[in-house]
Amino acid sequence: MGYLHLHQAAAKKYTEAVYAGDSETAISMIYLSEQDKKEAGLPKMLSGKIKAEIAHRKEFAVKNGGIKEISVGEPKYDNDKKFADVSVTVTFKKSEKPKEEHIRLIKTDDGWKLKI
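Below the sequence we write its predicted structure tokens.
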């Protein structure tokens, strides 16, 4: 695929983690504002929901023979380039129909994170 910009690499890494069932990596890539982190029970609730979704997607990947390829499209930015929408196409070994996803990222001091 060639060189990936940091936000494209983040989108690909997140997608790889999700379909591999690596909830620890995927969750570490999700942005929570300071206010969200302080809201009672919110981080734990989100973690539980995300882990359930990751388990579902891993099962989907396994049923479809695993990942053949993940391709990342060009980002669409907001005006100040703090947010980027990145399209990701996941092709599976046993499926003719690729899965298209759009990942919204936010630029943070720690790099690009998934904005949910």
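Residues 42-63 form the longest helix (22 residues).
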